[in-house]
Amino acid sequence: MTTEPTAFTATERALGLHHTVATAVADLIDNSIDAGATHVLLRFLQSGRRITGLRVVDDGRGMDADTIDAAMRYGVQRAYGVADQGHFGVGLKAASLSQADTVTVYSRAAENLPVARRLAVDDRHDPPRLSTLPDADAAKVIAAARPRFPFETGTVVEWRGIRTFPNTASAQDQVAWLETVVGDLLAHLGLVFHRLIATGLAITIDVLDEAIGRAGAPRTVRGIDPFGYRMSGRAGYPRPLAALGRDAGQAHIWPARSSAPEYKLGGLPGRDSQGFFVYRNDRLLHAGGWLGVLRPRPDWALARVSVDLDDVLAQHITINPEKSGVTLDATLSAALHQALTDDYLDDAATTAVAARRVQRRPISVVEPGIGLPDEVADEFADSFSFVDTAEPVAIGWRVLAADRFFEVDLESRTLWLNARFRTQLGGRRRSADDVPVLRTLVYLLAQDMFDAVRHSARQVEQMDAWQRVLIAALAADEGSPK
């Protein structure tokens, strides 16, 4: 095996710093797609109780010696076609080294011997070392891959020394972590590649026991279409959204009260995903949010706009290095603001309001913001009128003193529940609206405390009394037989 240092500029060192496991894997899948792959396997490598590595296996064209050298060297830029998913020319390297200390690429192209190259770092700030592995090693790994699809040509990207993997020896912790990261991958990749999955791309995930060389049952990544409703929420939609003298996107209005996973992306309330969904070559680059054009509003919960980049729009949009977000320039931002505020957002708001039951709402409360499931937020709107002198209030978890059950934070307009008790109360760490009954009850108890600039002595005394009773109830629950 021969090893050599690589050139490594400050710019290249910074690329990929904000990758997660899911966004880094998506970047590798982009390379697979550009190589003509129709099947991609994500394979976690397990040794005993520990997850020790990750492989991305595809059935694309593969690489010969010259191609893999260019792919693994810094400072070598390839020319991308207009239909390619690649954009910056450093995706494989930046994505891999953002997560792992060592990335090894094994590849086999038609009518060529298998080849392998390795990049390794001792420190994230040091230049990576590039190694050429024997062809026999490449052939051995490729022959042993057996990815459950034809693998005459293709590539295996292997991460080792993964910094984001858990170090604990606890089998329970390893299993919990693996289930979490697989769930994240299923959700993220299903959303990012939903159009390509719908047209034939197959992505699966499994776990390989390295001791016996056998993989468990695969899990298939299912497409999650953020515009996958059966019937539009309003007649006349979707319709083109004109900006810069062209159709810049398609304006959609979701049907009200939807509980579909395509609406509640990642399990979050659907209203959290209002806004723009930006695509390039059918690959999702940005999911939800108004990109600074507007501030989100609850009444616009049903509004989503799909934007497909073309040569003109691309001149006004900057894609971040992780390909998980975009930034608009002032010209496009102003044009989209005009297009959105003509009548589209009014139509979305009218649709949401019309879906609510018509009934008397004699009781007023401060409006809840994020932190409740959509159906609970809708019921608030149906059952109460909202105080017009107070901004909405978020509900979330934060570690508080052990003698505090909640905190009324007037500055951030947030009702904080004490995260010390989250597990005991049945909460789930990766949910933004877990234990909805608890959230709702505490909010109803404390909501009028947010209709003030500061709290009176009487209000402080009242909240202290509530705290003592709730903490006593927690202690009683902890001591009761299970």
Descriptive key words:
482 residues; alpha+beta; ten-stranded mixed sheet; five-stranded mixed sheet; 22 strands; 30% helix
Please, could you describe this protein's structure?
Mean pLDDT is 89; it is low at 8-14. The longest helix is centred in the C-terminal third of the chain and has 23 residues, at 457-479. This protein has helices at 10-14, 21-34, 65-72, 91-97, 135-145, 171-192, 194-198, 311-314, 330-342, 344-354, 374-383, 436-446, 457-479; strands spanning 2-5, 39-47, 50-58, 100-108, 115-120, 129-133, 154-162, 202-209, 214-215, 219-220, 239-243, 246-253, 275-280, 283-287, 303-308, 317-319, 326-328, 364-365, 385-386, 394-398, 406-409, 414-418. With 482 residues, the chain is of the alpha+beta class. Helix 2 (21-34) runs antiparallel to helix 4 (91-97) and helix 2 crosses helix 6. The protein is built from 13 helices and 22 strands.
If you average the pLDDT, what whole number results?
Answer: 89
Q: Please estimate the helix content.
A: 25-40%
Strand content: 15-25%
Ends: how far apart? 60 Å
Form type: globular
Structural class: alpha+beta
Treating each run of at least 4 consecutive H or I residues as one helix, how many helices? Answer: 13
List segments where confidence is low: pLDDT < 50 over at least 5 consecutive residues.
8-14
> How many β-strand runs?
22
Question: Rounded to an integer, what's the Rg over CA atoms?
Answer: 26 Å
Task: State the major sheet.
Answer: 10 strands, mixed
TL;DR?
The longest helix has 23 residues, at 457-479. Helices cover 30% and strands 24% of the residues.
